[in-house]
Give the backbone structure.
Amino acid sequence: MSVVAIGLGCLAGVLSGLLGVGGGVLFVPALALVVGLGQDEAQATSLLAILPVALAGAWRQRSYGNLEIGDAALIGALATLGVVAGSLAANALDDRIQRIAFAVLTVVIAIQLLRRGIAGLRRDVGSSGATTAEREGASDGR
Amino acid sequence: MRSGRTLELAVVGTAGGLFSGLFGVGGGVILVPLLVLWLGWGERRATATSLGAIVVIAAVGSVTNGLLGHVHVDDAALVGLPAVAGVLAGTWLQQHMRAEWISILFATMLIVVAAELALR
C-alpha cells in the first residue's frame, strides 16, 4: 500500500516539475484511495505535501533562470485571497453545474495550449522553444 | 509600463485563485494557462512562476487546515518526500525538452482532469 503511495508521490513530483502544478491532482487520490483518508483530510494533507515540492521546484527553476520571486510572490498572495473568495462562492453553486462548467473551461484551455504547442513545433526555427541547455549554450557563444 | 505589468500579474493571481477555489482544483492548473495564453509568457517561465506562487498558496492553506486539524503530517511526508525527488527530476527534464512539449503535455493533463470531473 505505502509502495503505491510512494510511487504516486514520485510521479506527482515529476508532473509538478514538468508542468508547474502542485501535484494535488495525484496527491489527493493517493491519500484518499491508497492511504484511506477522507476527502477533506486528503485535500488538506495534500496542501502540506505540495509545500516542499513547490519549494524545491521553484528553487531549481530559479537557478535555471526561469523565476522572478517578486512575480511569484505577488501572484501567490493574491491567489491565496482569491481561493478563499472562490471557495465561498462555490458553496452557493450547484455541484453538478460547477463540475460541468469547469470541464468545459478546461477543454477550451487545453485546445488553445495544444494549438500553441503544435504551431510552435511546426515552425521549428525560432529559439523560443529551445531547451534551457541550448539557450545557455547560445549565450555562452556570444 | 511597470505598473501595467504589476496589474497584469495581480489580475492573473486573483483570477487564478478565484477559479481554483471555485472549482476545487490547484492554482497551477489555472495560473500556467493564464500566463502562457494571456500574457504570452514562455512555458518554462510560466511554470516556474506558478510553482513559486503555489509555495504561498500551499503554505497559507497548510497552516489554516492544520489549525482545523485536517492535516495528517505523516501521510503528507509519505507522498510529499518522494515527490521532492520527483520534482527535481521533473524540472531538470523540463530544461532539456522543447518548450512546446510543455504546452502539449499540460493540455493532455487538462483533458484527463476534465474527463475525470465530468464522469465523476
